[in-house]
Amino acid sequence: xxxxxxxxxxxxxxxxxxxxxxxxxxxxxxxxxxxxxxxxxxxxxxxxxxxxxxxxxxxxxxxxxxxxxxxxxxxxxxxxxxxxxxxxxxxxxxxxxxxxxxxxxxxxxxxxxxxxxxxxxxxxxxxx
Length: 128
What we know:
The protein is α+β, with helices and mostly antiparallel strands. The chain is 23% helix and 27% strand.
């Protein structure tokens, strides 16, 4: 799956096997826009577009976070796993992946800290 980024709102037209596709980049509140595509033929057509590299570009792929082993971030004599985060969204994402909890169940920092505590995880470094 590839994601393309444009610093402005953008729409393009491409042809794949004789079929015209009108692609609309999804705008954000900052004025930029994104397009995510999972079809390899469509990706190839997008990357052959004359505006590719000028008005929009492919974003680097994020590598998935590696699963933590039980020995990671565990203090000696302590059965609680300590994770260090400074950003609420990063902490929520990592906790959801580790525990399987819904992200909507962790809407506030207090919800996140309580969910982490219930699963034996201490979040360090996050402001209250």
